[in-house]
Predict the structure.
Amino acid sequence: MSEVMGKVISGEAMGGLERSCTPSPADWIRLAPPEEGLERLEAFFGGHAYDPHRHDTYAIGYTLSGVQSFDCRGAKMDSTAGKVIVIHPDEVHNGRSGVETGFRYRMLYIEPFMIRDALGERAGSLPFVRDVVADDPRLLSALRPAFEALDNGLEGLEMDQIVVAIADALLARDPSAAKRSRSAVSSLAVERARHFLHEHFGETVGSEQLEAITGLDRYSLARHFRQQLGTSPYRYLTMRRLDHAKRSMREGLSLADAAFSSGFADQSHMTRQFKQAYGMTPGRWRAINATG
């Protein structure tokens, strides 16, 4: 498989407490080079893929083969080849194969601020897509260019083009988002908070710090932050820590060192947050994301 997947190799034996989480030898995840605000991957799972978890991003992708099954919004979802999946920030979901032969898919995780900025004044809130799995030729067409060269980074103009096309396709699925409004003051406050959290993910950030930076009280900021970015300030901070932890693990750091460098109290703290965000332990994630 390494000949086909380039830098990706299959799961390997794990030691210690995570031995029971050893992935199937057939499971793999192929990650594109990191981009600010956007993550791209292609993956295959032969059976169980993810425990229940939630992201702070939109998870938008499509199934390439097999049956991609998962639970979301209290119902079982099945996606087959060519179907498009849209999972909103903070929506709990899991993942597994609906057939014995497994499933293969591509997924793009895009931070809500990119969708917000791409839509600009045309939308007062993030689009909400009611059908998690659907036939959506427009959104499928918008997604495909993001995966044409997964081993390469995206050029700035290329990324802009992709994000705009995806944002427009999402707004087409939720025209009501265009009828809502947001104030310029709240937008500026949320963006200031987001930038501060992004730059200080390794530190303990207090509510009073964000109040001083944004000019909003902590509860108003939390409401505006969720309206515009789909999650809470603390959840956003945690996910930036996890982003850094994943990069550290791919660069060869131990789980303990990755946790310490990313601002977690210890390895167990990182592991709990990691499972909540990605539906698997850091050890399993590292095994199927190895860069051999």
Notes: The two ends are 12 Å apart (CA to CA).
